[in-house]
Known about the structure:
The protein is of the alpha/beta class. It has two domains: 21-138, Rossmann fold; 148-241, Arc Repressor Mutant, subunit A (Orthogonal Bundle), CATH 1.10.10.10.
Amino acid sequence: MATLTRSGQEPLTRPDGTPIRVLTVDDESSLTELLSMALRYEGWEVSTAACGLEAVQVARQIRPDAIVLDIMLPDFDGLEVMRRIRTEQPDVPVIFLTAKDALDDRISGLTAGGDDYVTKPFSLEELVARLRGLLRRTGATIAREESRLVVGDLSLDEDSHEVFRGGEEINLTATEFELLRFLMRNPRRVLSKAQILDRVWNYDFGGQANVVELYISYLRKKIDAGRTPMIHTLRGAGYVLKPAAE
């Protein structure tokens, strides 16, 4: 029987079999301790930081597979922390923690390059579930599929995370990649916003379907820019991806 974590899931590891490394950044020590405990139950290595400068230094030392990052820190904000860390680790996934409840604040974190966010207060189980989904999407774990998807002149390699259209390579963020993969696994099929939220984000995104529109627009700029469109909107129904010739 497979060993399960406290969350009831099979443990995730890095491709070389070593534990996942997570950096948690928050100036509330009680919250950091709770987060660390929950993540260690998953079998992961957890490092912590209480301010932006310390976070950048620790990230440089441990090269984390994912970062849980508070927006509000005593020295500089989480967005600046992410920018500094990503100068050395451009692909490291980031989940923002925020006490702000306005949609504009949440979306600003995503448009700045964050992969997800949770609004305080939140459940530890929810955060762990989001981290697991994010780690799978980024290919940081052993749970990768070795297959290639092709729709028209668009191809996606699920193992190497390379995407090409018409022979030209297209660079995508982790979330953009997962969204495109879902569309390409369902060519010519209309997918509703609710279906996309459930599959790509693995949870109800606070009822904010706006994030689907946001990431569809990102994909269009990269996949369809200057070419015959492949991603189409069916008003009131959802989105569909089909070969440009159709």
